[in-house]
Amino acid sequence: MADKKPLPKKNALGRGLGALLEDSPQKSKSQDLIPASPSAGIYEISLDEIFVNPYQPRTHFDKDALQELAESIKVQGIIQPITVRKLGDKEYQLISGERRFQASKIAGLERVPAYIRTANDQQMLEMALIENIQRENLNALEIAHSYQRLLTECELKQEELGDRVGKNRTTVNNYLRLLKLPPDIQAGLRDNRISMGHARALINVEDVDKQLAIYKKTVEEELSVRAVEALVKSLNDNKADKVSADKPDLDPVRKYEINKIQQRLASHFGSRVQLKADAKNKGEIKIPFTSTSDLNRILEILEII
């Protein structure tokens, strides 16, 4: 390792990422990470020796934001070191910190401070995803895709995922539900034309054409989240009225209780749960799924697998 000077240790990283990068052994599915040196310190590495991370979950970096970071690095230096893994002699691969790495190039730096870790490909992916979720200004859709990749590619269970990112299951489910939206609405969320609040309201519209119509109206008229929620509620109420027009209506109090239970089930499973009950308290519960992985997610919540 050429001309590397150990620097003083910094504080541990974020909650989930810290558990992955901690020098002491951790109880998890991933193998223990082995520091590149006995001291597990920070070293200065030439930028020319570092290769970008092929598992980087973020594909777009705002040029203006990078330039601002570069100007800050010129004045303050790099406050938080990047993290790399050693590939060979004078060859390293980024685990986390690509924004700092790219901004350092713009700032004209030749060397950057770095933690050196040993990690396999799955650990690389897991650490890159968690680092981005915790440290970058990701939009809601990018977070949703990162959560999905952690579940599928890193084979994490929902409870493990929640522990890694410091979120409860309901919050994780709310993000994952965004991936069920039509591509046009997902693009709008990605490009910040709508917020996560808008998207969560639109999820509750079952008809795709009506979803897109409300989305278009939201963007064109710059509707607030509350306005979109009111539109969706009105649409769903009208649908419910048509369905029950030829059937005896439930007692208002009972109807309210059924609706509250349905909302709680939908929040718990992260899906559009349908709960139907008649005046004799007979009915059914439907939990739709969109793929095998979605079915496995629901079965996991039910503790069937």
Automatic annotation (TrEMBL):
For this record, the Gene Ontology CC terms, alphabetical, are: chromosome
SUPFAM superfamilies hit by this protein: KorB DNA-binding domain-like (SSF109709), ParB/Sulfiredoxin (SSF110849)
A GO BP term here is: positive regulation of sporulation resulting in formation of a cellular spore
**Under the GO molecular function aspect, what terms does this record hold?**
DNA binding
Q: Where is this region: Disordered?
A: 1-35
- Domain ParB-like N-terminal, chain residue ranges per copy: 43-133
Record key words, sorted: Chromosome partition, DNA-binding
**Pfam families cross-referenced by the UniProt entry:** HTH_ParB, ParB_C, ParB_N
InterPro entries in alphabetical order: Chromosome_partition/occlusion, HTH_ParB/Spo0J, ParB/RepB/Spo0J, ParB/Sulfiredoxin_sf, ParB_dimer_C, ParB_N
What family is this? Answer: Belongs to the ParB family.
State the name under which the record lists this protein: Chromosome partitioning protein ParB
Originating species: Mongoliitalea lutea
